[in-house]
Design a protein that fits this description.
two-stranded antiparallel ribbon, seven-stranded mixed β-sheet, about 210 residues, alpha/beta, Rossmann fold
């Protein structure tokens, strides 16, 4: 598995990951701990993998690209929509001051929480609920990351973003039911500025709490 891991790190560099801190975090988090045992041999392939409840652990390059696009520092408070396996969360937690993460499936959240404990990550606060509503009690956030495809830039999340803050979100604008545009959204005094980062593929952002 070490050879596969080394090959993945090279693939991330070729894919445009040049932030030293992001690369260090990607190297430090053991992806095999977030992958179902039956497919653990695929842990370091640069592909998305199923984790149950019709959800996936994202392709490592996508995780790294979204993390890099956030321009994180260790003084920032970050909101993540869609905890999933906790893999993206664990990468973020190594780079920010405090991570708040929301997952709609309780079983997935419980599994992620166990992994956070195993990794001794103490700066993560979790909640099971509807991520489309964000976490208004903890707003504003310097950074927000959405790991499911919205139909548009979610206005409730923009409201919870600090002025000058950045949100990275995949948006399905109807051009293709599978592929989405990955956007970097910066909140300004007058509204938002958006930058397209490329085409990506995520499960849809669904409203509601599955309990």
């Amino acid at each position: 598995m070490e050879d596969s891991r080394a090959q993945l790190i090279l693939a991330l560099r070729r894919g445009g990951i040049d932030n030293k801190q992001v690369m260090q975090a990607m190297e430090r988090v053991p992806r095999e701990d977030f992958v179902p045992e039956a497919i653990r041999d695929k842990s370091y392939e640069n592909i998305a993998l199923p984790i149950g409840h019709h959800q996936t652990i994202s392709q490592p390059l996508t995780v790294a690209l979204m993390t890099q696009a956030l321009n994180l520092t260790d003084r920032m408070k970050v909101l993540e929509i869609g905890t999933g396996s906790g893999y993206q969360s664990s990468v973020l937690a190594l780079l920010c001051r405090r991570l708040y993460t929301i997952e709609r499936y309780r079983e997935l959240m419980q599994g992620a929480e166990e992994r956070f404990v195993a990794q001794r990550l103490t700066n993560i606060t979790t909640k099971c609920g509807d991520g489309s509503h964000g976490w208004p009690e903890q707003a504003p956030f310097e950074r927000i990351i959405v790991t499911a495809a919205a139909h548009d830039i979610p206005p409730m999340l923009v409201e919870q973003l600090a002025v000058g803050g950045i949100m990275v979100v995949p948006v399905n604008d109807g051009r293709d039911e599978h592929d989405q545009r990955l956007l970097r959204v910066t909140r300004t005094e007058d509204g938002v500025e958006t930058e397209e980062l490329g085409i990506t593929r995520f499960v849809p952002l669904v409203e509601g709490d599955q309990g």
